[in-house]
Amino acid sequence: MTKLPFSDIQGKSRIIKAKEIQVELLSQPVRYYRHGWQSWSLAAWTDPGPIPVQKPAIFHPLQVDAEHVHKKYLNGSWLGAVEFTDGNILLLGALGTDAHVSLVQDPLPTTEMLSGQSDADEIEWFVAFGQENVVFEEYAEQLGSRLGRTKKNDAPRVWCSWYSLYYAIDEPRLHRIFKELGDLPFDVLQVDDGWQMDIGDWQANRKFPSGMKALAEKIKSTGRRAGLWLAPLIATRSSQLFREHSEWFLRRESGQFVSAGFNWGERLYALDTTRPDVTSWLVALMKQVRTWGFDYIKLDFLYGGALMGKRFKDMPREAAYRECLQTLREAMGADAFFLTCGTPIIPAIGICDAMRIGPDVAYHWEKYHDAYLLYNPTIPGTRNAIRTTVHRLWLKPLLHIDPDVAYFESKGNSLTQDQRILLQNLACICDFKATSDLPQWMTKDEHDELRSFLGTKRKVVRTGRYIFHVNDCVVDFTSAIELPEVPEGLTALWGRLLGWLGDRYVILRMYKVLNLGKFRKRRSTL
Ligand code: 9PG
Q1: Which residues contact 305 (CB under 8 A, 6 or more apart)?
Q2: Would you say the CB of residue 398 lies under 6 angstroms from ligand 1?
Q3: How far, in whole angstroms, is CA 390 from its chain's centroid?
Q4: How far is the first Cα of the chain from the last one, in angstroms, to the nearest whole number?
Q5: What is the C-alpha to C-alpha distance for residues 17 and 379, in angstroms, rounded to an integer?
Q6: Best substitution site from 39, 40, 191, 356 to test ligand 1's pocket, by max atoms within 8 Å of Cβ?
């Protein structure tokens, strides 16, 4: 254990090799920067007290780091920081994979400490005190020189099928939309979830009778790159992959399958990516996608490759994940644009071109039951997306950061104009422009706004933690940042009941029915 007195880091940053490290704080911090594990997990400055464990627990593997979610003290993945009354911050950050930072009390004498722990051997730690932007910039710089930087050109401008159509995609509908997008300046048309046979079975389903090669060709005939979504590291129990190769899936020491959470109305399982047969299958899959003609590849639910379990190769879980990403990258080729989503953050640096850095946006700002009853800041919702994304902007020098899509259409959208404009400005701040809006649903003005958004670069200056000047307009994200109040009394009880029902799938199945209703309604307007 390496102990670092505060006086050792005043005025200079330090890089220290250790398996465990503790940095003593001189005074009580006023805020704590918690950094969630993967794209969707919360990253935010919060009060230094604990916040409730988000619910339902069945989602934990796909929303947080399930290994640390029940810890009573403040903690985060790879890094942690504290802010003092004078506005300066102290950051402790790992420069490698498989590390965790907590804010702990040393009982004798009572002092608080930032404590870093590596699950692997000794790693390098970055420690710095000072102005927030300077400290994070230096941390990113150090990460970049060890893990790599992948930002080359501007990020492509993307139209993505998910946020307007969800599962309501099929061949004729997509063909029509590709045509209706006309000459809007998109570089990529990306087909999201809904084309595949099952999660695990990555062949075209019945809705795409001409197959995926024909679909990619259709996109390319519009003069754009073809993009495709896959979730290659997980599978549902019903998939052919799981039924035929259950031995490929990650298990615990006890032999039980490791849960990768719950989605698509089903339990999810994760591949053991250290098995040679799994690696060959993944390589063949990536090559297949390239052969079809897609070269913008959005790989999602990637956390599945970094869950705790007993692997074929005995190695730390995040190092295994990084190795798998490297294999995927090599298989898809250096010329493919590789977007990671649902990805553990630090292990993906230097490998992918772009990374989703927050939860999904949605047509709503925040849902009462998600925010206040389940206390879930990870679930899709625009407020959740903005909050976490704004807290991860420091990653920008390393790779393209994806804040998820911006909306222009107001039809069927419960976001206010101001909230939509916040998303549009966030896209400009991230330098990553994507939307899912359908031309036929936009008014003439909305269509023009989208064209100008895609066609012009806005000037961005950051003037505060949450305040920016974008083309001389002040953009203030404060309204998205605050976390919901901690539920008490009856609300807390009601939340617990809802979480319990969720864990027993009752609510989740109801959700599926409700969502299907939503998709049907949407489809009928197409
Ligand atoms: C397709 C979508 C889109 C989207 C991805 C991902 O339960 N969850 O917490 C949860 C989070 C995100 C999510 C789905 C579920 O969305 O981020 O862009 O590709 O999958 O299914």
Answers
A1: 233, 270, 271, 273, 320, 321, 324, 325
A2: no
A3: 13
A4: 61
A5: 36
A6: 40
Region class of 324: left (phi > 0), else alpha (psi between -120 and 50), else beta: alpha
Ligand 1 centroid – CA 361 distance (Å): 10
pLDDT digits (tens, 9 = 90+) for 133-179: 999 999 999 999 999 999 889 999 999 999 999 999 999 999 999 99
Contact predicate 348/334, CB 8 Å:
no
Q: Rounded to an integer, what distance in angstroms lies between the CA atom of residue 113 and that of residue 398?
A: 29
Ligand 1 proximity of 384 Cβ (cutoff 6 Å): no
SS (H, E, C) 456-511: CCCCEEECCCCEEEECCEEEECHHHHCCCCCCCHHHHHHHHHHHHHHHCCHHHHHH
Please give the share of the chain, as a percent, with pLDDT higher than 90.
Answer: 83
Residue 343 contacts residue 355 (beta carbons within 8 Å): yes
Report the C-alpha gap between 163 and 219 in whole angstroms: 19
Taking the centre of ligand 1 as the mean of its atom positions, its distance from the CA of residue 179, in whole angstroms, is 26
User: From the alpha carbon of 229, which atom of ligand 1 is closest?
Assistant: 19
Both structure tokens of 99: 């590390």
Q: What is the pLDDT of residues 376-403, one digit of tens each?
A: 999 999 999 999 999 999 999 999 999 9
Closest CA to 263 of 300, 308, 289, 297: 300
List pLDDT tens digits, range 233-282.
Answer: 999 999 999 999 999 999 999 999 999 999 998 999 999 999 999 999 99
Q: What is the pLDDT of residue 522?
A: 57
Q: Which residues of the chain have pLDDT under 50?
A: none
- To test the ligand 1 pocket, which listed residue (360, 382, 405, 432) has its Cβ within 8 A of the most ligand atoms? 360
Tokens of 340: 């990671």
Reduced 3-state DSSP string for 210-241:
CHHHHHHHHHHCCCCEEEEEECCCEEECCCHH
Closest by CA position to 95, among listed 63, 138, 44: 138
CA 379 to ligand 1 center in whole angstroms: 9
What pLDDT is attached to residue 10?
82
* Three-class DSSP labels, 289-348: HHHHCCCEEEECCHHHHHCCCECCCCCCHHHHHHHHHHHHHHHHCCCCEEEECCCEHHHH
Atom from ligand 1 closest to the CA of residue 63: 9
